[in-house]
Design brief:
The complex is a heterodimer. Chain A is about 70% helix and about 0% strand. By secondary structure, chain A is mainly α. Chain B is an all-alpha fold. Chain B is about 80% helix and about 0% strand. In chain B, helix 1 packs antiparallel against helix 2 and helix 2 runs antiparallel to helix 3. Classes of the chains: A mainly alpha, B mainly alpha. At the A-B interface, helix 1, helix 2 and helix 3 of A face helix 1, helix 2 and helix 3 of B.
């Protein structure tokens, strides 16, 4: 019974790790396909939550269910889980602060520029074409 | 069988980190570079824990925590620099 539970934990952990590997490949493709800063925010958040939080929980489960690591499996599992929680809290916060700073400093150039409800001056002529 | 899955994940993460760092070098503005460095650092944190399972070395996994904290600091400092023009101590 315990062996079955350990196998289920291990399979779940590897499934999460493979999901994260696929998501990080998709995010790396997104960094080269998206055209401007505000679209690349999406690639960053995909790589943060799908590509980092879930596989860190997965490595925690794999480390807990493996007998090869010995007593040090608790170190790997705990460090992975703490890193997953930290990234789950800090990654959206940091990305939001960066987007706010870029919007206020007007450094990101969006080519079809139609409407900005926060700053109407950004919609002027000549800005969007640059 | 499970070990080969781990190797596959390590290969996928390495390719993703390389492709993201290319965007960090090319990126036209400072925001693009910082976003790419963010994503590459998250992937590096996962890669370190995968290495610690593959090589059975528990000390490698603790690096993920400090990487997560470091990249948040980079985000906040760059946002403050862009908004105010200096770091403001």
């Amino acid at each position: 019974m315990l062996e079955l539970a350990l196998f289920v934990l291990r399979a779940l952990g590897y499934a999460l790790i493979l999901l994260g590997a696929f998501a990080s490949l998709a995010a790396a493709a997104g960094f080269h396909r998206f055209k401007d800063f505000y679209l690349r925010l999406h690639a960053t958040t995909v790589s943060a939550v799908w590509g980092c939080v879930y596989p860190l929980v997965g490595t925690s489960l794999v480390a807990l269910s493996s007998g090869e690591l010995g007593e040090s499996k608790w170190i790997v599992a705990g460090a992975s889980f703490v890193a997953a929680i930290l990234i789950f809290i800090l990654a959206p916060t940091g990305t939001h602060a960066l987007a706010r700073g870029v919007h206020r400093s007007r450094t990101a150039h969006v080519v079809p520029f139609v409407e900005d409800a926060l700053d109407r001056d950004l919609c002027g002529e000549g800005y969007g074409s640059g | 069988m499970m070990e080969s899955l781990l190797l596959l994940a390590i290969a996928a993460y390495s390719v993703s980190i390389a492709a993201t760092l290319i965007r960090a070098l090319l990126g036209p503005t400072l925001g693009d570079r910082v976003l790419a460095i963010d994503a590459a650092t998250y992937m590096t944190a996962v890669l370190f824990t995968l290495f610690s399972i593959y090589f059975r070395e528990p000390k490698l996994a603790t690096a993920a925590v400090s990487l997560a904290l470091w990249v948040y600091l980079l985000d906040v400092y760059v946002a403050k620099y862009l908004e105010k023009g200096d770091l403001g101590a």
